[in-house]
Amino acid sequence: MNDYDIAIIGGGLVGASLAVALAGSPLRVVLVEAAAPPVSSPLWDERCIALNDASQRIFDSYGVWQALRDDAAPIVATHISERGRFGTARFAAAEAGLPALGYNVPLRAIGAALSARMQGLKHLTLLQPARLSALKPGADAVELTIESGGATRTLSARLVAAADGARSAVRDLLGIAAERRDYAQHAIVSAVRLSRPHQGVAYERFTPEGPIALIPKPDQAASLVWTLPDEQVEARLALSDAEYLALAQDCFGGRLGRFTELGRRWSHPLARVLSGSLTAPRTVFIGNAAQSLHPVAAQGFNLGLRDVAALAAGIAEAADPGAAATLAAYAERREQDRGRVSDFTDLMVRTFSNRVPFLAQARHWGLVAVELAPPLRNAVLRQHLGHLGLPRATSSVAAETFPAAKVPSPLGGEG
User: Fold this and answer.
1) What is the dihedral of CA 192, 194, 197, 198, to 10 degrees?
2) Which tens digits make up the pLDDT trace of 114-126?
3) Among 2, 67, 353, 414, which has the highest number of CB atoms less than 10 A from its own CB?
4) Hey, CA dihedral for 250, 254, 256, 261, is it positive or negative?
Protein backbone atom coordinates (compact mmCIF):
# COMPACT_ATOMS: atom_id res chain seq x y z
CA MET A 1 0.00 0.00 0.00
CA ASN A 2 1.45 3.34 -1.06
CA ASP A 3 -1.52 5.66 -0.49
CA TYR A 4 -2.01 7.07 3.01
CA ASP A 5 -4.09 9.65 4.79
CA ILE A 6 -1.22 10.89 6.99
CA ALA A 7 2.54 10.70 6.45
CA ILE A 8 4.52 11.54 9.59
CA ILE A 9 8.08 12.52 8.75
CA GLY A 10 10.23 12.02 11.83
CA GLY A 11 9.75 9.26 14.36
CA GLY A 12 11.20 10.93 17.44
CA LEU A 13 9.09 11.55 20.53
CA VAL A 14 6.77 14.07 18.84
CA GLY A 15 6.26 12.09 15.63
CA ALA A 16 5.69 8.84 17.54
CA SER A 17 3.27 10.63 19.86
CA LEU A 18 1.21 11.74 16.85
CA ALA A 19 1.11 8.18 15.50
CA VAL A 20 -0.16 7.00 18.89
CA ALA A 21 -2.63 9.90 19.14
CA LEU A 22 -4.24 8.75 15.89
CA ALA A 23 -4.59 5.16 17.12
CA GLY A 24 -8.36 5.39 17.55
CA SER A 25 -9.03 6.77 14.09
CA PRO A 26 -9.49 4.85 10.83
CA LEU A 27 -6.89 7.02 9.10
CA ARG A 28 -4.08 5.19 7.30
CA VAL A 29 -0.81 6.47 8.70
CA VAL A 30 2.81 5.96 7.63
CA LEU A 31 5.70 7.05 9.84
CA VAL A 32 9.11 7.65 8.22
CA GLU A 33 12.14 7.79 10.52
CA ALA A 34 15.75 8.06 9.37
CA ALA A 35 17.45 6.58 12.44
CA ALA A 36 17.43 2.90 13.35
CA PRO A 37 15.55 2.06 16.56
CA PRO A 38 17.74 2.92 19.58
CA VAL A 39 18.87 0.22 21.98
CA SER A 40 19.50 1.31 25.57
CA SER A 41 19.09 0.12 29.14
CA PRO A 42 18.22 1.97 32.35
CA LEU A 43 21.09 3.91 33.93
CA TRP A 44 21.02 6.27 36.89
CA ASP A 45 22.42 9.15 34.83
CA GLU A 46 20.37 8.64 31.65
CA ARG A 47 18.87 11.63 29.84
CA CYS A 48 15.46 12.74 31.07
CA ILE A 49 12.80 15.22 30.06
CA ALA A 50 10.45 17.13 32.37
CA LEU A 51 6.78 16.61 31.49
CA ASN A 52 4.35 19.16 32.88
CA ASP A 53 0.86 18.32 34.10
CA ALA A 54 -0.74 18.90 30.69
CA SER A 55 1.73 16.52 29.02
CA GLN A 56 1.11 13.84 31.64
CA ARG A 57 -2.63 14.13 30.94
CA ILE A 58 -2.05 13.90 27.20
CA PHE A 59 0.03 10.74 27.54
CA ASP A 60 -2.56 9.29 29.91
CA SER A 61 -5.33 9.91 27.36
CA TYR A 62 -3.23 8.13 24.70
CA GLY A 63 -2.76 5.05 26.87
CA VAL A 64 1.00 5.36 27.44
CA TRP A 65 1.26 6.95 30.88
CA GLN A 66 0.79 3.68 32.74
CA ALA A 67 3.96 2.35 31.08
CA LEU A 68 5.88 5.46 32.20
CA ARG A 69 4.64 5.70 35.77
CA ASP A 70 7.32 3.54 37.40
CA ASP A 71 10.16 5.47 35.73
CA ALA A 72 8.71 8.93 36.39
CA ALA A 73 10.01 11.07 39.27
CA PRO A 74 7.26 13.45 40.45
CA ILE A 75 8.03 17.16 40.67
CA VAL A 76 5.93 18.36 43.61
CA ALA A 77 7.39 21.88 43.83
CA THR A 78 9.68 24.31 42.01
CA HIS A 79 12.08 26.88 43.43
CA ILE A 80 13.35 29.71 41.18
CA SER A 81 16.05 32.09 42.35
CA GLU A 82 18.94 34.30 41.24
CA ARG A 83 22.42 33.89 42.62
CA GLY A 84 23.38 36.68 45.01
CA ARG A 85 19.81 37.95 45.59
CA PHE A 86 17.15 36.92 48.08
CA GLY A 87 14.12 37.10 45.75
CA THR A 88 12.59 33.71 44.93
CA ALA A 89 9.49 32.32 43.25
CA ARG A 90 8.14 29.02 44.56
CA PHE A 91 5.29 26.87 43.33
CA ALA A 92 3.81 23.73 44.86
CA ALA A 93 1.49 21.10 43.40
CA ALA A 94 -0.77 21.39 46.43
CA GLU A 95 -1.77 24.96 45.58
CA ALA A 96 -3.03 23.71 42.20
CA GLY A 97 -4.83 20.76 43.77
CA LEU A 98 -2.54 18.29 41.98
CA PRO A 99 -0.35 15.41 43.13
CA ALA A 100 2.55 16.82 41.07
CA LEU A 101 3.37 19.80 38.89
CA GLY A 102 4.96 17.39 36.44
CA TYR A 103 7.31 14.44 36.16
CA ASN A 104 10.95 13.93 35.17
CA VAL A 105 10.96 10.91 32.83
CA PRO A 106 13.84 9.16 31.00
CA LEU A 107 13.83 9.70 27.24
CA ARG A 108 14.44 5.96 26.91
CA ALA A 109 11.25 5.14 28.80
CA ILE A 110 9.10 7.51 26.71
CA GLY A 111 10.54 6.14 23.47
CA ALA A 112 10.00 2.54 24.59
CA ALA A 113 6.41 3.20 25.69
CA LEU A 114 5.52 4.91 22.41
CA SER A 115 7.23 2.18 20.39
CA ALA A 116 5.35 -0.56 22.23
CA ARG A 117 2.06 1.27 21.73
CA MET A 118 2.72 1.65 17.99
CA GLN A 119 3.42 -2.04 17.43
CA GLY A 120 -0.22 -3.07 17.59
CA LEU A 121 -1.73 -0.25 15.52
CA LYS A 122 -3.30 -1.85 12.46
CA HIS A 123 -3.62 1.42 10.52
CA LEU A 124 0.06 2.36 11.01
CA THR A 125 2.98 1.49 8.70
CA LEU A 126 6.44 2.12 10.13
CA LEU A 127 9.34 2.75 7.73
CA GLN A 128 12.59 2.76 9.72
CA PRO A 129 15.31 3.45 8.85
CA ALA A 130 14.07 5.42 5.86
CA ARG A 131 14.66 8.93 4.57
CA LEU A 132 12.53 11.47 2.74
CA SER A 133 14.39 12.70 -0.36
CA ALA A 134 11.69 14.61 -2.24
CA LEU A 135 8.10 15.70 -1.99
CA LYS A 136 5.63 17.29 -4.37
CA PRO A 137 2.38 18.81 -3.09
CA GLY A 138 -0.68 18.34 -5.29
CA ALA A 139 -4.30 19.39 -5.13
CA ASP A 140 -5.47 16.25 -3.31
CA ALA A 141 -2.27 14.70 -1.92
CA VAL A 142 1.48 15.07 -1.47
CA GLU A 143 3.78 12.75 -3.39
CA LEU A 144 6.79 11.64 -1.35
CA THR A 145 9.97 9.90 -2.42
CA ILE A 146 11.36 7.64 0.30
CA GLU A 147 14.80 5.98 0.30
CA SER A 148 15.37 2.89 2.41
CA GLY A 149 17.93 0.09 2.23
CA GLY A 150 19.24 1.24 -1.14
CA ALA A 151 15.76 1.21 -2.70
CA THR A 152 13.42 4.08 -3.56
CA ARG A 153 9.65 4.08 -3.31
CA THR A 154 6.96 6.68 -3.91
CA LEU A 155 4.12 7.31 -1.46
CA SER A 156 1.20 9.67 -1.44
CA ALA A 157 -0.53 11.18 1.58
CA ARG A 158 -3.38 13.61 2.01
CA LEU A 159 -1.46 15.29 4.85
CA VAL A 160 2.25 15.41 5.69
CA ALA A 161 3.04 16.04 9.37
CA ALA A 162 6.64 17.25 9.62
CA ALA A 163 8.08 16.21 12.97
CA ASP A 164 11.66 16.08 11.74
CA GLY A 165 13.35 18.53 14.07
CA ALA A 166 14.76 22.03 14.05
CA ARG A 167 16.62 21.37 10.78
CA SER A 168 13.48 20.06 9.11
CA ALA A 169 14.07 18.44 5.73
CA VAL A 170 10.41 19.00 4.89
CA ARG A 171 10.76 22.70 5.56
CA ASP A 172 13.88 22.87 3.38
CA LEU A 173 12.31 20.92 0.52
CA LEU A 174 9.33 23.28 0.53
CA GLY A 175 11.55 26.37 0.68
CA ILE A 176 10.04 27.65 3.94
CA ALA A 177 12.35 29.94 5.87
CA ALA A 178 12.90 29.82 9.62
CA GLU A 179 13.83 32.59 12.03
CA ARG A 180 16.92 31.65 14.04
CA ARG A 181 18.21 33.38 17.15
CA ASP A 182 21.54 32.03 18.37
CA TYR A 183 21.94 32.53 22.12
CA ALA A 184 25.72 31.92 22.01
CA GLN A 185 25.19 29.38 24.78
CA HIS A 186 25.51 25.63 25.26
CA ALA A 187 23.64 23.40 27.68
CA ILE A 188 25.71 20.79 29.47
CA VAL A 189 23.37 18.01 30.57
CA SER A 190 24.33 15.44 33.18
CA ALA A 191 23.14 14.03 36.51
CA VAL A 192 24.32 14.23 40.10
CA ARG A 193 23.80 12.17 43.21
CA LEU A 194 22.81 14.16 46.29
CA SER A 195 23.62 13.83 49.99
CA ARG A 196 20.21 15.23 51.03
CA PRO A 197 16.71 14.19 49.88
CA HIS A 198 15.43 16.42 47.08
CA GLN A 199 11.84 15.79 48.26
CA GLY A 200 10.55 16.22 44.71
CA VAL A 201 11.61 19.87 44.41
CA ALA A 202 13.01 21.16 41.10
CA TYR A 203 15.38 24.12 41.23
CA GLU A 204 16.24 26.72 38.63
CA ARG A 205 18.94 29.17 39.67
CA PHE A 206 19.97 32.04 37.43
CA THR A 207 23.60 33.12 37.41
CA PRO A 208 25.55 35.68 35.35
CA GLU A 209 26.83 32.79 33.20
CA GLY A 210 23.39 31.26 32.64
CA PRO A 211 20.80 29.16 34.50
CA ILE A 212 21.60 25.98 36.37
CA ALA A 213 18.69 23.59 36.90
CA LEU A 214 18.32 20.49 39.07
CA ILE A 215 15.30 18.27 38.41
CA PRO A 216 14.42 15.30 40.67
CA LYS A 217 15.32 11.76 39.63
CA PRO A 218 14.77 8.54 41.58
CA ASP A 219 17.34 7.22 44.08
CA GLN A 220 18.41 10.59 45.45
CA ALA A 221 19.72 11.85 42.14
CA ALA A 222 18.85 14.84 39.96
CA SER A 223 19.21 15.83 36.34
CA LEU A 224 21.67 18.73 36.11
CA VAL A 225 21.33 21.18 33.22
CA TRP A 226 23.95 23.92 33.21
CA THR A 227 23.76 26.68 30.59
CA LEU A 228 27.05 28.41 29.78
CA PRO A 229 28.44 30.86 27.21
CA ASP A 230 29.94 29.15 24.16
CA GLU A 231 33.47 30.24 25.01
CA GLN A 232 33.39 28.43 28.38
CA VAL A 233 32.01 25.08 27.28
CA GLU A 234 35.17 23.36 26.01
CA ALA A 235 37.12 24.13 29.17
CA ARG A 236 34.20 23.09 31.38
CA LEU A 237 33.87 19.75 29.61
CA ALA A 238 37.61 19.16 30.02
CA LEU A 239 37.37 19.35 33.82
CA SER A 240 37.57 16.22 35.89
CA ASP A 241 34.36 15.03 37.52
CA ALA A 242 35.55 16.32 40.89
CA GLU A 243 36.40 19.75 39.49
CA TYR A 244 33.09 19.99 37.65
CA LEU A 245 31.13 18.97 40.76
CA ALA A 246 32.95 21.57 42.86
CA LEU A 247 32.07 24.37 40.42
CA ALA A 248 28.46 23.25 40.16
CA GLN A 249 28.23 23.03 43.96
CA ASP A 250 29.62 26.54 44.34
CA CYS A 251 27.16 27.87 41.76
CA PHE A 252 24.09 26.11 43.16
CA GLY A 253 24.79 26.22 46.88
CA GLY A 254 24.08 23.74 49.63
CA ARG A 255 20.27 23.36 49.59
CA LEU A 256 20.59 19.72 48.59
CA GLY A 257 23.74 19.02 50.56
CA ARG A 258 26.78 17.81 48.68
CA PHE A 259 26.91 16.64 45.08
CA THR A 260 28.54 13.27 45.62
CA GLU A 261 28.75 11.79 42.09
CA LEU A 262 28.59 13.11 38.53
CA GLY A 263 27.11 11.25 35.59
CA ARG A 264 28.05 11.47 31.93
CA ARG A 265 28.07 14.92 30.33
CA TRP A 266 26.48 15.89 27.02
CA SER A 267 26.51 19.37 25.49
CA HIS A 268 24.55 21.00 22.71
CA PRO A 269 24.27 24.57 21.35
CA LEU A 270 21.19 26.63 22.16
CA ALA A 271 19.14 28.65 19.71
CA ARG A 272 15.53 29.55 19.03
CA VAL A 273 14.31 28.38 15.63
CA LEU A 274 10.78 29.36 14.56
CA SER A 275 9.36 28.08 11.30
CA GLY A 276 8.12 30.94 9.12
CA SER A 277 4.80 29.11 8.87
CA LEU A 278 3.07 26.36 10.79
CA THR A 279 1.52 25.02 7.61
CA ALA A 280 2.12 24.65 3.87
CA PRO A 281 -0.11 23.08 1.19
CA ARG A 282 -1.21 19.74 2.72
CA THR A 283 1.65 20.00 5.22
CA VAL A 284 1.82 20.88 8.90
CA PHE A 285 4.86 21.43 11.16
CA ILE A 286 4.87 20.16 14.74
CA GLY A 287 7.36 19.96 17.59
CA ASN A 288 10.86 21.24 16.88
CA ALA A 289 10.07 21.48 13.17
CA ALA A 290 7.63 24.24 14.14
CA GLN A 291 9.61 25.74 17.01
CA SER A 292 12.83 24.78 18.78
CA LEU A 293 13.29 26.67 22.05
CA HIS A 294 15.87 27.32 24.75
CA PRO A 295 15.52 24.67 27.51
CA VAL A 296 14.94 27.26 30.25
CA ALA A 297 11.76 26.33 32.17
CA ALA A 298 11.58 23.01 30.22
CA GLN A 299 8.92 24.21 27.78
CA GLY A 300 9.99 22.80 24.38
CA PHE A 301 8.78 19.18 24.29
CA ASN A 302 5.69 20.05 26.31
CA LEU A 303 4.77 22.63 23.67
CA GLY A 304 5.36 20.06 20.91
CA LEU A 305 3.11 17.55 22.65
CA ARG A 306 0.33 20.16 22.71
CA ASP A 307 0.89 20.52 18.94
CA VAL A 308 0.21 16.79 18.68
CA ALA A 309 -2.94 16.99 20.82
CA ALA A 310 -4.38 19.91 18.85
CA LEU A 311 -3.58 18.33 15.47
CA ALA A 312 -5.02 14.94 16.42
CA ALA A 313 -8.21 16.55 17.71
CA GLY A 314 -8.56 18.67 14.56
CA ILE A 315 -7.98 15.73 12.23
CA ALA A 316 -10.59 13.67 14.09
CA GLU A 317 -13.22 16.23 13.11
CA ALA A 318 -12.14 16.72 9.48
CA ALA A 319 -13.38 14.95 6.36
CA ASP A 320 -10.05 15.75 4.67
CA PRO A 321 -7.09 15.96 7.09
CA GLY A 322 -5.02 18.00 4.64
CA ALA A 323 -7.68 20.46 3.53
CA ALA A 324 -6.67 24.12 3.63
CA ALA A 325 -9.46 24.96 6.09
CA THR A 326 -8.37 22.16 8.45
CA LEU A 327 -4.77 23.38 8.47
CA ALA A 328 -5.79 27.04 8.85
CA ALA A 329 -7.87 26.14 11.90
CA TYR A 330 -4.93 24.23 13.37
CA ALA A 331 -2.53 27.14 12.83
CA GLU A 332 -4.98 29.57 14.40
CA ARG A 333 -5.31 27.34 17.49
CA ARG A 334 -1.57 26.92 17.91
CA GLU A 335 -0.18 30.38 17.13
CA GLN A 336 -1.16 31.88 20.48
CA ASP A 337 0.36 29.07 22.53
CA ARG A 338 3.51 29.01 20.42
CA GLY A 339 3.93 32.79 20.60
CA ARG A 340 3.34 32.94 24.33
CA VAL A 341 5.79 30.15 25.18
CA SER A 342 8.53 31.14 22.71
CA ASP A 343 8.40 34.77 23.85
CA PHE A 344 8.38 33.71 27.51
CA THR A 345 11.49 31.54 27.19
CA ASP A 346 13.27 34.12 25.04
CA LEU A 347 12.52 36.89 27.54
CA MET A 348 13.82 34.79 30.43
CA VAL A 349 17.06 33.96 28.61
CA ARG A 350 17.78 37.52 27.54
CA THR A 351 16.74 39.10 30.84
CA PHE A 352 18.64 36.73 33.12
CA SER A 353 21.73 36.62 30.89
CA ASN A 354 22.12 40.41 31.01
CA ARG A 355 24.41 42.05 33.57
CA VAL A 356 23.07 45.63 33.15
CA PRO A 357 22.57 46.95 36.74
CA PHE A 358 18.98 48.23 36.39
CA LEU A 359 17.95 44.91 34.83
CA ALA A 360 19.39 43.07 37.81
CA GLN A 361 17.05 45.04 40.06
CA ALA A 362 14.13 44.39 37.72
CA ARG A 363 14.85 40.65 37.75
CA HIS A 364 14.96 40.61 41.51
CA TRP A 365 11.66 42.44 41.98
CA GLY A 366 10.10 40.40 39.21
CA LEU A 367 10.74 37.21 41.20
CA VAL A 368 9.35 38.89 44.30
CA ALA A 369 6.21 39.91 42.38
CA VAL A 370 5.66 36.37 41.07
CA GLU A 371 5.92 35.10 44.64
CA LEU A 372 3.59 37.69 46.21
CA ALA A 373 1.12 38.94 43.55
CA PRO A 374 -1.75 36.39 43.17
CA PRO A 375 -2.88 37.31 39.60
CA LEU A 376 0.67 37.16 38.21
CA ARG A 377 1.44 34.08 40.26
CA ASN A 378 -1.64 32.23 39.00
CA ALA A 379 -0.88 33.11 35.37
CA VAL A 380 2.70 31.86 35.68
CA LEU A 381 1.52 28.70 37.43
CA ARG A 382 -0.96 27.86 34.66
CA GLN A 383 1.76 28.46 32.07
CA HIS A 384 4.08 26.22 34.08
CA LEU A 385 1.46 23.45 34.14
CA GLY A 386 0.78 23.76 30.40
CA HIS A 387 -2.94 24.31 30.95
CA LEU A 388 -3.08 27.50 28.87
CA GLY A 389 -2.28 25.57 25.70
CA LEU A 390 -4.54 22.54 26.14
CA PRO A 391 -6.99 22.07 23.26
CA ARG A 392 -10.65 22.29 24.18
CA ALA A 393 -13.05 19.48 23.34
CA THR A 394 -15.36 20.98 20.72
CA SER A 395 -17.31 17.84 19.87
CA SER A 396 -17.97 14.38 21.24
CA VAL A 397 -15.31 12.93 18.90
CA ALA A 398 -12.68 15.38 20.15
CA ALA A 399 -13.72 14.74 23.75
CA GLU A 400 -13.15 11.01 23.30
CA THR A 401 -9.84 11.64 21.55
CA PHE A 402 -8.63 14.06 24.22
CA PRO A 403 -10.60 13.85 27.45
CA ALA A 404 -7.96 15.87 29.31
CA ALA A 405 -9.24 18.98 27.48
CA LYS A 406 -11.65 19.37 30.42
CA VAL A 407 -8.78 19.79 32.87
CA PRO A 408 -9.78 21.97 35.87
CA SER A 409 -7.95 25.24 36.20
CA PRO A 410 -6.04 25.82 39.44
CA LEU A 411 -7.96 29.10 39.60
CA GLY A 412 -11.34 27.35 39.47
CA GLY A 413 -13.55 26.82 36.43
CA GLU A 414 -12.17 25.08 33.35
CA GLY A 415 -8.68 25.48 31.91
Assistant:
1) -40
2) 999 999 899 999 9
3) 353
4) positive
